[in-house]
Write a structure and sequence with these properties.
Blueprint (H helix, E strand, L loop, with lengths): L2 H12 L4 H15 L3 H12 L4 H28 L2 H19 L5 H16 L1 H12 L5 H27 L3 H22 L14 H7 L10 H5 L2 H17 L5 H8 L4 H26 L4 H17 L7 H29 L5 H29 L2 H22 L54
Helix pairs in contact: 2-8, 2-9, 3-4, 4-5, 4-6, 4-7, 4-17, 5-6, 5-7, 5-9, 7-17, 8-14, 12-16, 12-17, 12-18, 14-16, 15-16, 15-18, 17-18
């Protein structure tokens, strides 16, 4: 690519987006620059505190359990109270709980505060995803979500490298650093981000009350039961859980395996930073390449790459070999994340975005609960090789699931969308994507699922 072409691509990627998006983008970057707990919890517990892999898995699982609870609660809060209040509450409470965790000494206290950190840190994800969909026009969402995902991984790449070095001297400094940056993120949201919740969802005078109660323009109430009865959407959630279970091993299984093999936290930090740096370098160009490709094939291929990319870890020896395996599953993440999120966006009614995003986020949270238990048990009982073989099996099952789910997928957004139902008063940002082949233009995820990178999660 010539210099002129590169400049044109950059200009096309950043122009025309609303100011509120860039403040949300900045808050995401600041938040991810402080990532420490989710990435280094297992090393902190096993190397610094001397606990077993099983106990570390239990604590990280409690962190995930907190995320399961908060995903649903925060989804409802996002629709009822608004995106901005939910973000503020989540980030301020995360800053407090992360700092508190750094001072805990007793194993029971560590476990209890880890649960609290999981609840607070995961609560911002539905609000971030819903706000991103609210403030950006449908025709701009592809590049907007790609840019936000780019910010997530730029921050993660920098923080993983720096935090790995910090952890060799003081884990407490890492906890306090994350708390300070998360608090700064909350201040930025308070000062710069306006509320974005749609207020014109109902016909006639229903307006704000319809939005607050989670009703669509057709008067149909959207509760958690509505989401859970949505078969196709719950299929996406289930497959997201399998993929998340694989990707989360980058932050739970991989550090334990490398620590057992004699590598230092700094070595792990360098290896996992490859994930963030590759996403920073490749996410936008790869998104431009795949946005008009068949989403069914993309999801199947990415699931196989994820599963067998992690499976290759069983054959890694030196640090550079671990880095090569990270390259394989990072490519899977780059492809899977935007394509999978496009399903969520299309299947989520406008005034139910918070609840739908909350249930979708729950798939990552449940994976964060199960993955450490799975990793700790398998490594302690059979060794890391069995864990990596299991990821290959999970990737194969997920690939088959995507192939089945994507057959005969209907075109367009949900019929319960106020605009799709003919409500001309709905917000411009809620209008459906241009017509064409179903899911021809995938919308990259702002979060997390993330993991994390995918496993680690978003702002």
């Amino acid at each position: 690519m010539s210099a002129a072409s590169l400049r044109r691509a950059v200009r096309e990627s950043v122009s025309g987006l609303p100011r509120a998006f860039w403040w949300l983008w900045t808050s995401t970057l600041v938040n991810r620059l402080g990532a420490f707990v989710a990435t280094f919890m297992t090393l902190y517990l096993t190397l610094d505190r001397g606990y077993s892999a099983s106990f570390a898995g239990l604590v990280v699982a409690l962190h995930g359990l907190g995320g399961v609870v908060s995903s649903l609660v925060a989804g409802v809060m996002t629709d009822r109270l608004g995106r901005r209040p939910t973000l503020l509450a989540a980030q301020a409470s995360t800053a407090f709980s992360v700092a508190l965790l750094g001072f805990m000494e007793h194993p029971a206290a560590i476990a209890a505060v880890a649960l609290l950190v999981g609840m607070t840190s995961n609560a911002s994800r539905p609000a971030v995803a819903a706000m991103m969909a609210d403030i950006v026009r449908p025709e701009d969402r592809v590049r907007a979500f790609a840019l936000n995902y780019w910010a997530i991984n730029l921050g993660f790449a920098v923080s993983a490298t720096a935090a790995g070095l910090i952890a060799e001297y003081s884990y407490l400094a890492g906890f306090l650093g994350e708390a300070a940056l998360t608090l700064a993120c909350a201040v930025l949201v308070y000062v710069k981000l306006p509320e974005s919740r749609p207020e014109g969802g109902g016909a006639g005078a229903s307006g704000a009350s319809g939005a607050a109660s989670g009703k669509t323009g057709t008067g149909t109430e959207i509760g958690l039961g509505t989401v859970l009865r949505d078969g196709r959407f719950m299929g996406v959630v289930g497959l997201s859980f399998l993929i998340s279970l694989i990707f989360t091993q980058g932050s739970v299984g991989l550090p334990v395996a490398m620590g057992s093999a004699g590598f230092s936290p700094g070595d792990y930090g360098l290896v996992i930073a490859v994930n963030g740096f590759l996403i920073v370098a490749l996410q936008i160009p790869v998104t431009r390449l795949i946005e008009h490709r068949d989403p069914q094939k993309l999801l199947v291929i990415s699931a196989l790459l994820a599963g067998y990319g992690f499976a290759l870890t069983a054959f890694a020896g030196p640090v550079w070999a671990y880095g090569l395996t990270v390259c394989v599953w990072t490519l899977a993440e780059i492809v899977n994340s935007p394509t999978q999120m496009s399903l969520v966006v299309r299947l989520s009614p406008v005034h139910g975005r918070g609840r739908y995003q909350g249930v979708y986020t729950m798939s990552w949270a449940v994976a964060a609960l199960v993955a450490p238990l799975m990793a700790g048990f398998m490594i302690d009982r059979w060794g890391a090789g069995r864990l990596w073989a299991a990821t290959g099996v999970l990737g194969t099952v997920a690939a088959a699931g995507y192939w089945l789910l994507m057959r005969n997928l209907p075109e367009g957004d949900r019929a319960t969308d106020p605009v799709a139902a003919g409500d001309a008063a709905a917000p411009k940002a809620a209008r459906p994507l241009p017509t064409g082949p179903a899911l021809a233009e995938p919308l990259p995820a702002p979060a997390d699922p993330l993991p994390t990178s995918g496993p680690v999660g978003a702002s």
